[in-house]
Amino acid sequence: MAKTFGASIQTVYETLQDLANKDQQGFVSPLEFNRFAQVAQLNIFNGLFDELKDVKKLSRSGFDPSRDKSRFKRIQEDLAAFSTKATLSKVSGVFNVSNATSPMARIISMATSGSILLDQSTKKPIEICYDEEKIERILISNLSSPTEDFPIALVSEDIQVFPTSINKIEVRYYKYPEGRTSTGVRTATMPTYTEGGTSIDFELPEHYVSDLVYEIGKMIGVNLRDTDIVNYTGTEMTARKQAETY
C-alpha cells in the first residue's frame, strides 16, 4: 500500500498568502494562520459525516455515480483513515474514553474483549445506547435485561457496560484528526506551519488542500473564489510533486 501523505500545510499557507495578496487583504502571518489551522481541519472532518448522510440518500436513490466516481465511497475511504480501535479496562465501574490510544471523536462499534477459539471469536457485540431513560427501562425489564451474551453500553462522558460483570471491552471509533510529518508519519502534534523550520502537515488527505484554504480564508476574512483556489492549489501541488521527484 502506498504511503499516505497529509495535505501540505506549506501549500495551504502559501496559497492562502498569495490569494490574500491578490485580494489586497495584506500579509497573513504564520501565527495567525496556525490559530485557525486546527479548527479548519476539524470543521472539514465533522462536515464529512453530514455530507455522508446526504450522499447516502443520493446513493439509495441511484443518483450517486458508481465505483471510483462515487462520492459516498470516497468519503468512506477518507473517514476510514481515521478509524482505529482501543481496548479499555474498567476502572471504578466505568470505561474511561480518555484512556483510548487516540482522542475519540465518534464511536463506530463496541464488543466484549475475547479471543479466537476453534476458529470462532468469543467476542460479543455490545449494543450502544446514549439515552439514560432507555437504559433504565432496559435494566428493570425482565424481558430485555442485558446478559453477557447480549450486553449493552451507556455512552456519556464515560462508558458503562451492563451486565457489570464485563471488565474489558474493545471500541472501534473515529479519532480526531491530528498531524503528519513531511514523510507521512502520523503524529499527535497538530498541524503547524513553521517558516524556515519543520512544519507539521494536516492529517486530512492531500485532496483537501482546496477545502482547507477556503475554510481558513473564511475565518481570517479573505474573500476567496473557487476558481482562484483551484488554480493556485493545483499549481502549488504540481510544483511540490515535481520537487519530490528530484
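Next protein, fold it too.
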Amino acid sequence: MSKLNQKIELKDGRMLGYDEHGAPDGKPLFYFHGSPSCRVESGLYVDEQFLQVQNIRVIAIDRPGMGLSNFQPQRLLLDWPKDVIALADQLGLERFSILAYSLGGPFGIACGFAIPERIHKLGIVSGAALFTNNNLIKNVNPKTLQFINMPRENPLAARFFLTIMLVIMPRLAPRRFIAGALSALPEADREVVQSDKTFQEGFSKMIREAMRQGTKGAYHESLLNITDWGFQLEGIQTPVMLWHGEQDKNIPVEMARSMCSTLQNCKGKFFPGEGHISLFKKHSSEFIHSLIE
C-alpha cells in the first residue's frame, strides 16, 4: 500500500519529502527522480502490484526545491548523499539499493561515490548525464540543452522560461505542454506517451507538484548538471547497473557508453529502438528486480 506525501525534518531544519510504494517491510529501494520532476514520477513507471508480489519497498524522494522538499541554497551534488542517509537512518535502513532515472543519474552516482558501504546495488536508467563533457553533448536535443545551459548563459531569461514552461503551461494548457514535450522526443517515446492518456495526465501532475515551490529547484539543478561533480568516476567502487536506450536524445547513448567504460564496476545494457521514456516504461519491473535480487 502506498504512503504518500511523507516528510522528515533534517538537522538543518529543512523538510525532506518522499512517497512509499509496495510492501511496507519489503526490500528497500530508493528512487531518484529526473529533473524537473519530483517523487510523483515513480508512480508513472513503477507497478504497485509487482512491488507487493516481489516484496519490494520503493521510497521515492523529492530533491531540494522540488515537491515537498525545501530548497537548499548553494548545494552541491555531494550534499545529496547526506540527505539520503538522514532518511535511511530515520527509516531504520542500514543497506538499500538505488534506482536513479534521467537527470537523477548524477545523484545516484554521487551516492555510489560517497556512501558505498550503505548501497546494495546502484541502477542508472537513461541517466548517464555527462553534460560536463563537451565532446558528448553534440547529439542532445535542443530543448534539453536549452534547459541545461540557459541558467548559466542568461539567468533572467532562464527564470522567465522556466516559469512559463513549467509553472504556467502545465496548469493552464496541459495539452499544449504535453505536445511541446513530445515534439523533442524520438519516435519510440512519442508512441508510448501518445497511446497512454493516463501517463500524459500523470506527467502533467508530476510537473505541477515538482513546481509547487516555484522554479528555484529546477533552475539550480540545471546549474549542477553543468558543474564539476566534485569527484571522479574512476574512483567509484560501488557496483553499477546501467540501462540506456540507443534512441535517447535527452541523454544520448554516447554518454552512457562513456560512463560505463569509465566506471570500475559497471554492467551496461543498451536497447536498440528505445528512447528516454519508452525504455523505462517497458522495462521498469525488470530493472527493479535486478537491483533487489
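About the second fold: The CA atoms of residues 136 and 242 lie 17 Å apart.
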